[in-house]
Design a protein that fits this description.
mainly beta
């Protein structure tokens, strides 16, 4: 069975009522050549987050941007017990066919990330 939603960017706000997330991890996103080998070029960052309402985890990729903070700074702040709340600009979700698992899976992307403070 196929889906009409595959490979279409859908605004995350359509399916996720709470758009504030707790930031868990920041990881570099590498570029890959046509043979699926990493080139060593960093093209963006992946933010592992957990939804502050449903507690579901996901990784949201932002290309071509500097990270919100250094991964080491995030780790230090989390080790001190601090929760870092974030929101994403123009966050989308897209279903794609994973040929390894033989099922549809979700991928997330955004244009930017914002730190949520008590004033927001």
């Amino acid at each position: 069975m196929s889906t009409r939603l595959a490979y279409k960017d859908i605004p995350l706000a359509v399916i996720e009522p709470e758009l504030v997330f707790v930031l868990l991890r920041i990881k570099e996103v590498q570029e890959y050549d046509p043979n699926s080998k990493p080139t060593g070029n960093i093209v963006g960052y992946s933010y592992e987050v957990v939804n502050s309402d449903s507690f579901e985890k996901c990784k949201i990729k932002i290309l071509g941007k500097k990270p919100l903070m250094a991964p080491e700074e995030l780790q230090e702040r989390r080790e001190k017990g601090e929760k870092i709340y974030v929101e994403f600009e123009n966050a989308t979700i897209k279903a794609y066919w994973n040929k390894n698992s033989h099922s549809y899976e979700d991928t997330y992307a955004a244009d930017g990330i914002l730190l949520v403070t008590a004033e927001n």
